[in-house]
Amino acid sequence: MSSLENVLYFQAGLGVLANMFLLLFYIFIILGQRPKPMDLISSQLTFVHILMFLTGGNIGIADIFESLNIKNDIKCKATFYTSRVMRGLSISVTCLLSVFQAVTISPSTSLLAKFKHQLKKYMINALFYIWCFNLSVSSYMLFYVGGFTNVSETKQMNVTKSCSLFPMNYIIRGLIFTLSTSRGVFLVAVMLSTSAYMVNILHRHQRQCKHLHSNRNPRTSPEKKATQTILLLVVFFVVMYWVDFIISFTSLLLWMYNPVILTVQKFLMKAYPIITPLVQISSDKRIINVLKNLQSKCH
């Protein structure tokens, strides 16, 4: 078990460093230069992922609360609520990123083309409603999570060493499950739909390029590269999301959390926030140029 926990610590450290680097880059771009439309959404996703690592139960907020001698009940509510909100924001912002990239690369003859000129306005409004929605949906955690006391007496489900999930009646549990599942299924469906739409556009664009440049290979456009990056992130996210959903659903159904399964679930939950910044860093030409300039100055 200790080896698994060490892997989680290493995973969290790598994730925080990669996302912090990416967030600082986006802040520099947004404040100092003309940012791309997708930079605002990407910076939000990066910020969300940093908070996901800090509220993951291994590092960050839990340790800060412990050092400040804050009551265990408050610590559990704060960490679990923040963690649940960040998980909801992760899927919501990833979906938003996919939708707006589909709008960005849509041809001028499509119905989505009319939204291109007001992307920034729609983007800010969408981010505001997404935050409000997820803060509201996850508020039940403030009532049904608290400090661990005695499982045998109160039928609590112990989810960490010091925190537990209080029993719910079947109606509330059903409502929470229905709402969470509906949100996940809807957002995943939107991501898959926009991904299929973008794949279709890229395929048509590739056929046109082959027709126009039969004797030479055309260079990959920045839009195409950005679209391929988002498609990769969406596919990876969908796979990780459903694995995590199956584990959570089974544990809630059986009202039992095995410590090893919980650790594996944490590892899977944090896989996407680690892969995302690494993929974005390796595919963003601006970041590559900055790193090359730093390397040349060092030598």
TrEMBL record:
Biological source species: Rattus norvegicus
Name used for this protein in its record: Vomeronasal type-1 receptor
InterPro entries reported for this sequence: GPCR_Rhodpsn_7TM (IPR017452), Vmron_rcpt_1 (IPR004072)
Intracellular or extracellular location(s): Cell membrane
Record's keyword terms, sorted: Cell membrane, Disulfide bond, G-protein coupled receptor, Membrane, Pheromone response, Receptor, Transducer, Transmembrane, Transmembrane helix
Alphabetized PROSITE patterns for the sequence: G_PROTEIN_RECEP_F1_2
Database matches in PANTHER family: VOMERONASAL TYPE-1 RECEPTOR
Similarity-based family: Belongs to the G-protein coupled receptor 1 family.
Membrane-traversing stretches: 12-32, 44-65, 85-105, 126-145, 230-257
SUPFAM superfamilies in alphabetical order: Family A G protein-coupled receptor-like
Membrane topology according to the record: Multi-pass membrane protein
Occurrences of domain G-protein coupled receptors family 1 profile (ranges): 18-280
Role of this protein: Putative pheromone receptor implicated in the regulation of social as well as reproductive behavior.
Domain of life where this protein originates: Eukaryota
